[in-house]
Design brief:
53 residues, globular, mainly alpha, 49% helix
């Protein structure tokens, strides 16, 4: 997940369901957004950023 104001809360909620949650700072996600900012483009950028070391 991209870290934001409520990300820690939602990370704890998702962890209760057995998901492994990683928070990524927005400055590490921003370079991977290829087109206009929307939820689909953000989700794709988060996945790409999470796969990087």
């Amino acid at each position: 997940m991209e870290a934001c104001g409520s990300a820690s809360y939602w990370a704890r909620e998702m962890s209760q369901f057995g998901h492994e949650v990683k928070l990524i700072a927005p400055q590490y996600v921003r370079p991977f957004v290829k087109r206009q900012k929307n939820d689909m483009a953000d989700a794709e950028a988060i996945v790409i950023a999470a796969q990087r070391p």
